[in-house]
Structures are given as C-alpha cells and as structure tokens.
Amino acid sequence: MGNSLGVVLPKDVLAKLRVGEGDELSVSETPDGVALRAADEDTAELMKLAEDIMRKRRRVLKALAQ
Q1: With 90 as the cut, is the pLDDT of residue 40 above it?
Q2: 14-17-19-20 Cα dihedral, nearest 10 degrees
C-alpha cells in the first residue's frame, strides 16, 4: 500500500462495489461525506499522467498560480 492506509469493508459493501482484496477504490467528496467507487483503470492512468506533468512542470504551474 505504500504510503496509504487500508480499510476493512463489510462483504456486502464489497459485493456492491464489485471489488475484492487488493482492488483500489476511488474516493470523492460529496456534500454528505465521501463516496467510494471501484477505481477505473483509465482514470488511474490519467491521474498518473497528470501527476507526472505537474511534477515536470512544477515551476511553470507555480508561476501561473500566482
């Protein structure tokens, strides 16, 4: 899990999410708290690409934010 934490979910929740041990979940904020979804491989790939770009272009992005 690297620098992340793990959680234990009831079997019925795992069944609803269609996930099992070792699967990744996507967590998003909602007005009432958080929502869990099975992680989408395409979304994970896009997030990795975005993180790589932000890391490489950190100075430019920081300047734009000012």
Answers
A1: no
A2: 0
